[in-house]
Design a protein that fits this description.
The complex is a heterodimer of chains A (about 375) and B (about 200). Chain A has about 375 residues and is α/β, with parallel strands linked by helices. Chain A is built from nine helices and 14 strands. Chain A has an eight-stranded mixed β-sheet with strand order 1-4-8-5-9-10-13-14, with helices on both faces. By secondary structure, chain B is an alpha/beta fold. Chain B has a single domain, classed as Rossmann fold, CATH 3.40.50. Chain B is about 35% helix and about 25% strand. Classes of the chains: A alpha/beta (about 375), B alpha/beta (about 200). The interface between A and B is medium-sized, with 27 and 21 residues. Chain B: Pfam families: MetW. Chain B: This is Methionine biosynthesis protein MetW. Chain B: It comes from Gluconacetobacter sacchari DSM 12717.
């Protein structure tokens, strides 16, 4: 497996020399937030939408990715005339704090050291810290109220944290395929991912840069395992079934134990190896940990409705029938928590066999839901 | 919008908070928002209708009368509306209690099982009556708790609900002329429409 560290390029960003106080108490300074924008901010600065990316996403939402050359991860949703219409809205997407696509994260040089990266010493960040870092950019852009905050999976957690922490700044919120807290099962999956990274001989206690190496195999296994949880049995069956092919890398011939590989194995290996070319292992640890700690009710005796009491934000929750990572039952918990807060809630479960990743894929009912919710909310917000 | 929905809308003061249980295609919600400036939200059991409503920009959540009302706080709404659904819920009395807990008023419409055609058919044929309103056979009907207008009034009395307005309407929703007499309404009204509040409110 490719052991070269991912290429680092310059990303458009804002630098905040004073940094910010993290929830853990640590003062992180400076803080850099890499971001991309699409569309035009209106003169009244009232048409801004923040799109929050998921665990391994980044700010390259609707354009060719400068590192991978692949299309933006939500290019089918965000653009002129698309459900999140950039002819109408000003869309901002920011790399999360702790990430590795230009925002401050474990791969950056620590300010108190001789140019050495943070690595595993990077302070633990939370979903709320990520949102507070995004707020720095929004303030710098002179935007006092976001028309909407939208995101799926971990992006959905950020949407909820935006609405809970800065209720007056969020007119409409669309948390998709997410949950009011990270479930024990999901923490368990994250733990397997992390153990795969720790078990890689190239891990070197998290200081792999000293050896000029990356724990590529561990990170790839982590990605392969996680990728299964993003799909569904039906989707895997539809895409791969039990089809086999000759393994081009196995010299022993077709009759040996692993001379042939199932197509699903080949697909996962490809997912793993392309992931390590763009993602940093320490970022993966930092961000998965932030997800694990996410619990809206944590500061409220376990009641996820309390942060939303008195909220005026319009919510639209979306879940997908075949998503077993963030199942509809968790979205329903969230819907009921918002009901207890008498919040304005729409809640749709979209019929799909594509699993958790359905929110990234072609689902016409989902597109209609996003478009309709936004235009309904725009009418209430009285924006063009 | 159906005519009986217009009668419901006429009972609702402008600018109020409304929950429509069983909001269907969202016609009433849309009307209340556009013409009355209401903060109108819906609950709907049919996911296709939910998706269509949200895609039209209406705030509707998937849920049903029996299971989802308990999660709302007291008096979260000025009006809670239940259209043509009371006879199909699992626990009608509990649903009414929840409606009048979370709302200051309840607006309930239901098909009247006391209509003369039903009485006559049961008497003359000895079989479960089928009419344009009650049109599914007994083994298929979702209407597991049919009641008459008199039955409903008795329940309101037992539960201590004040009937602020009532009317009997025919199937297309035209207001019927026998609105002065409950007994005549119970005989000739195809649908009943009630505006309730709790005693002491």
């Amino acid at each position: 497996m490719d052991q070269t560290p991912p290429t680092q390029i310059e990303h458009a960003h804002m630098l905040f020399p004073d940094g910010m106080q993290l929830e853990c108490g640590f003062r992180l300074a400076p803080v850099r937030v890499a971001y991309r924008t699409y569309g035009t901010l209106s003169a009244a600065r009232d048409n801004a939408i923040v799109v929050c990316h998921a665990l391994t996403g980044d700010q390259y939402l609707a354009e060719t990715h400068p590192l991978t050359g692949k299309p933006g991860w939500w290019g089918r949703m965000v653009g002129p005339g698309l459900p999140i219409d950039t002819d109408r809205f000003f869309v901002i997407c920011m790399n999360v704090l702790g990430g590795c696509m230009g925002s401050t994260g474990p791969r950056d040089a620590r300010p108190d050291g001789p140019g050495e990266p943070w690595g595993t010493d990077f302070p633990p960040v939370t979903i709320r810290d990520m949102v507070r870092a995004q707020r720095l950019v929004i303030d710098a852009l002179g935007i006092s109220r976001l028309f909407a905050v939208i995101g799926g999976s971990m992006g959905g957690m950020q949407v909820l944290e935006w609405a809970a922490t800065f209720p007056d700044m969020v007119f409409a919120a669309m948390p998709i395929a997410t949950s009011p807290f990270h479930s024990a099962q999901n923490i368990a999956f994250n733990e397997v991912s992390r153990q795969a990274i720790f078990a890689d001989p190239e891990w070197h206690g998290g200081r792999y840069w000293e050896q000029g190496a990356v724990p590529a195999r561990g990170l790839a296994v982590a990605r392969m395992m996680a990728h299964i949880t993003y799909l569904s049995e039906e989707a895997l069956t539809r895409k791969f079934g039990r089809r086999v092919r000759r393994d081009p890398y196995n010299q022993a011939g077709a009759l040996s134990l692993f001379g042939e590989i199932f197509e699903v194995e080949s697909y996962l290996r490809h997912q793993g190896s392309s992931f390590v070319r763009r993602f940093d292992a320490n970022s993966y640890l930092t961000i998965t940990r932030a997800m694990d700690y996410f619990d809206l009710g944590a500061d409220h005796d376990g009641d996820p409705s309390r942060p939303f009491h008195g909220t005026r934000t319009r919510f639209c929750l979306v879940s997908f029938t075949s998503d077993w990572l963030f199942p509809t039952s968790q979205a329903r918990l969230l819907a009921r928590a918002l009901n207890r807060a008498a919040a304005n809630v729409s809640f749709v479960e979209i019929e799909s066999d594509k699993g958790h990743d359905a929110f990234l894929l072609d689902e016409p009912d989902f597109d209609r839901t996003v478009r309709g919710f936004l235009s309904g909310a725009a009418e209430h917000a009285r924006i063009g | 919008m159906r005519l009986d929905q217009r009668l419901i809308a006429d009972m609702i003061r402008p600018g109020t908070r409304v929950l429509d249980i069983g909001s269907g295609d969202g016609a009433l919600l849309d009307y209340l928002f556009r013409t009355r400036g209401c903060d109108a939200r819906g609950i709907e059991i049919d996911m296709g209708e939910v998706t269509r409503s949200v895609a039209h920009g209406l705030p509707v959540m998937h849920g049903d009368a029996d299971h989802d009302l308990a999660h709302y706080p007291d008096e979260a709404f000025d009006y809670v509306v239940l259209q043509r659904t009371l006879q199909a819920v699992e626990r009608p009395r509990e649903v009414l209690r929840q409606m009048l807990r979370i709302g200051r008023h309840a607006i309930v419409s239901f098909p009247n099982f006391g209509h003369w055609q039903l009485r006559l058919k049961l008497l003359t044929t000895g079989r479960m009556p089928m009419t344009t309103v009650w049109h599914t056979p007994w083994y298929q009907t979702p209407n597991i708790h049919p009641c008459t207008i008199l039955d409903f009034l008795m329940l309101c009395r037992e539960e201590g609900y004040v009937v602020e307005q009532w009317m009997a309407v025919d199937e297309v929703g035209e207001r019927a002329p026998w609105r002065r007499s409950i007994r005549l309404a119970n005989l000739f009204g195809e649908q009943a429409l009630f505006l309730l509040r709790r005693r002491g409110h």
